[in-house]
Amino acid sequence: MSNEEYIKGRGAQKNVSNRFDEHRHEIRADFLNYCATEGEEPENHRTTMIETFPKSIINKVTSPDVGMDFSLNPYQGCEHGCIYCYARNSHEFWGYSAGLDFEKKILVKRNAVELLEKKLKSRSWKALPIILSGNTDCYQPVEKELKITRALLQTFLKYRHPVGMITKNALIQRDMDILRELAADNLVHVNISITSLKEETRRILEPRTATIKKRLETVEKLASANIPVSVMMAPIIPSINNHEILALVKEVADRGALGVGYTIVRLNGSIGGIFSDWIKKAMPDRAERVLHQIENIHGGSLNDSRFGTRMKGEGQFADQVRQQFKLAKRLYLKDRKKPQLNCKLHEEYKDGQMKLF
Questions:
Q1: How confident is the model at residue 93, as a pLDDT?
Q2: DSSP letter (8 states) at residue 46
Q3: Which of 121, 128, 152 is nearest to 138 (CA)?
Q4: How far is residue 258 from each of residues 69, 170, 250, measured CA to CA in Å?
Q5: What is the pLDDT averaged over residues 204-227?
Q6: How far apart are CA 317 and CA 130, in angstroms?
Q7: CA 36 → CA 30, 62, 195, 249, distances in Å?
Q8: Positive or negative torsion for Cα 76, 77, 80, 83
Q9: Rounded to an integer, what distance in angstroms lies between the CA atom of residue 80 and that of residue 345?
Q10: Helix (H), strand (E) at residue 273
Q11: Could you report how far apart the first and last alpha carbons of the chain are, in Å?
Q12: Which tens digits make up the pLDDT trace of 223-275?
């Protein structure tokens, strides 16, 4: 790592200016010198929870290439600190930075369960899969204490409503009892995010996530319990994890995964500057090479916002990744597919119990 001061346990190494703010803030060198002289920290890196009470909880997803129609996020911001996370930009809408604020200031939606129940009981609502979470991880560390995600799963079960899940935290194992009941009626599908098989890579890319060992164990336990589980290798980052595709797909297939998906890194909005700053401190020996390779994938830019190409990229590298996944699926996942979620039961459970007449 670079000799520049590196904040261990965090992904982003600084706060960047919020594009919606009228004023910009910066930490000046004289202030840093003062802190060093006085033995004080220039910034507090502890995580704080901020309670919120939104008016709605279900988000309609209009992007055509993310594979979901509706999402639900019990938390905004994410303590996992994944440096590449596209959701960082959403923190700016709340008045915070997409950098360290995204990891340190976690907004907790205290009325999430109440809002979900109200929606599922609505006469106008027709069942379609709702994804936990399309933006930030529903099993980030604070969930261990607050149990909002668990209560949401209980609500989906009560109303027999289909739910999908995306997480990189082994805490999901805590809720196996509810997941088994949902799976019995084909009401749940889980995606475990695994970016690398190397713990060293995981620690610097995703500093506060579950270990690779625990995530692989989670895939195996879910599969053994007949809970449909797939894996997302997202994102593929050139010169960091692209060489692991075949090995990772084989490993998760051996653990019982029904499928594997992927995206290629794109550094949209403020994330380009956050990632560039991070990689020059975390991987100075390869920083410029990685950034140039990302630009080559996206037509000379760190980001591509075009639907259809933004997730998979273009050019030689993107083609190689595409071919490797095609080969890996043929070798290790042939004839496997996840069952379609059941949207037919919910209408009979609108009031929380099965209608007899």
A1: 86
A2: -
A3: 152
A4: 21, 18, 12
A5: 97
A6: 33
A7: 10, 48, 37, 48
A8: positive
A9: 35
A10: helix 271-282
A11: 67
A12: 999 999 999 999 999 999 999 999 999 999 999 999 999 999 999 999 999 99
- CA dihedral 94→67→74→25, nearest 10 degrees, is -20
| Structural domains of the chain ordered from first start | 31-333 (3.80.30.30)
pLDDT in tens, 29-74: 564 555 567 565 656 668 999 999 999 999 999 888 888 999 999 9
User: Residues 214, 143, 163, 354: is their CA dihedral positive or negative?
Assistant: positive
pTM assigned to the model? 0.90
Query: b/e for 217-244, b at 16 or more Cβ within 10 A?
Result: ebbbbbbeeebbbbbbbbbbbbbbbbeb
User: 167 has which bridge partners?
Assistant: 192
N residues, the chain: 357
Is the CB of residue 281 less than 8 Å from the CB of residue 2?
yes
Q: What is the DSSP letter of 66?
A: S
The answer to whether 315 and 297 have CB atoms below 8 angstroms apart is yes
CB 109 within 8 A of CB 148: yes
Nearest C-alpha neighbor of 342 from the set 181, 222, 172, 193: 181
DSSP 295-306: HHHTTTSS----
Dihedral sign (CA 28, 30, 36, 42): negative
